[in-house]
Amino acid sequence: MATDKWANPQKMWDERFSRAEPVYGDAPNDFLQAQVFRLQPGMKVLVPGDGYGRNGIWLATQGLQVHTVDLSPVGVERAQKAAQAAGLRMTIELGDLSVWNWPEGEFDAVISIFFHLLPEQRTQVHGSMLRAVKPGGLVILEAFTRAQLQHSSGGPKQVELLYTADMLRRDFSPAEALELEEIERELGEGCMHRGKASVVRAVFRKHRSP
Question: What are the CA-CA distances from residue 15 to residues 29, 166, 185, 192, 198 (Å)?
Fold first, then answer.
């Protein structure tokens, strides 16, 4: 069973995002930075679970049309203020992605960075991510694996919230896996993602229409 804090995730994220220090840093995720070669200025991207906006704001500075959605009102307000201060035009939306009205075939890419869901939500939301991209569109994802329980570098402490490559292969089975691997790496993303970590990284491409 998930612990009490996951019984009220909005409260948990509000508390984290209320801290003066950006708990996951200001810089974008490095796997995302390494994958940006797959994206072109003007493309439309969706960033679910973007918190206070560190990844979405960076993508907007790369010339992408960015739409972020997050459960935390505190995170969304912080992202909106940061985007405004940077002079960026973005859509920054408050929403529960497990019940959000996901569009179909609207985005060139969905960027999912450490966005963890319980099993009863995960399969549904991952399917919605794939449906949200156009034919030929991408899902770029990094998440913690079950081996992360051995480390103290961040992430959920409940096994049911952690992912495996096989799990993602099943969830995104209608798509082509361009990259899919579980690796050990060093995290340096603020005070809550720091140190040795076990992650799964994936890039899936939706099949083009025949």
Answer: 21, 33, 27, 13, 25
